[in-house]
Inverse folding.
């Protein structure tokens, strides 16, 4: 699970993240962190839609390889 410090760092820097939800690359989410709580993270996608995702998913900068 991603820590509060990592999420805050990504949010302040405006880092585009890759959220890996399963083994299929097509299901990855690209966006920036808006907010979070104990169980969920709000991610804004490029088309300005907001997703509420579980913190148990893998979060890494988009530039890093999967």
């Amino acid at each position: 699970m991603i820590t509060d410090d990592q999420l805050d760092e990504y949010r302040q820097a405006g880092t585009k993240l890759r959220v890996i939800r399963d083994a299929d690359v097509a299901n990855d989410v690209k966006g920036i962190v808006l907010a979070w709580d104990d169980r969920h993270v709000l991610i804004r996608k490029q088309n300005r839609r907001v997703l509420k995702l579980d913190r148990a998913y893998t979060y890494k900068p988009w530039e890093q390889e999967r």
Summary: The first helix runs from residue 4 to 13. The longest strand covers residues 29-36. The chain is about 15% helix and 40% strand.
